Amino acid sequence: MYLMRIGAPGAERPVARVDEGTYVDLSDVVTDFDEAFFGSGGIDRVRPVVAERAAAGQVSLFDGERVGAPIARPHQILCVGLNYRDHAAESGMPVPDEPILFTKSPNTLIGPYDDVRIPRGSTKCDWEVELGIVIGKRTSYLDSVEEARAAIAGYLVVNDVSERAFQLERGGQWAKGKSAETFNPAGPWLATTDEIDDVLALDMWLDVNGVRRQNGNTKTMIFDPYFIVHYLSQFLVLEPGDLINTGTPPGVGMGFDPPVWLRPGDVMELGIQGLGTQRQHVLGPR
Q: How far apart are CA 76 and CA 241, in angstroms?
């Protein structure tokens, strides 16, 4: 299934994408795609409803309504840094022996076509196309990587927008460069795990103003999604609906010589094979 949330910010309703033009409304079946939904087996519960309604033609047309993030605000957004060997090289940093963990504020989450706003005092705002993992059940101290597979609800596109001066020049605390408002566009849909044949063979890309900046594939990850979930479960409890950003391939603005930074008026377009595309206009500070 492909789960989506459509409607105005704060008033999104849950739907399931049938094809490019139609969806099944699920707002009479579930309240939202949130912690309660994922933690209570919501995916299995709505799957037959979606199939039955789609077969009966009980579908609606996408008609210009805003697309929100496909999950409600999560308990936490966890991020893995330098998870592509060539991105570590362009950043001038060593390839990590273990996943580098940092967090983003959950209120950074926005829809895939919402505007991204450069924060006050920013001088080095950057982009990062990433594969996102959504956790499907409460998870801790997993015994194996295989167990981690069963803990994943699905995958989505995320843009891990970053302010490099805040991240690297203000005490080396990454969360400060990652948690400005609008810094985590997500979606357009959450693909459940059965929809992805091989999560380690997905092309990914990002353009700025029509110029290709990032071009990669999940096969070059250092730590794959299953390893990441298993690893993180040894240190903290993963809650249903939690989001994990798994790192970015090369081509971020910081890696160019000279560096290229986002400016008001820029347009970012990005996507991952099988997970859809995003488009964001960049706005100046409030």
A: 9
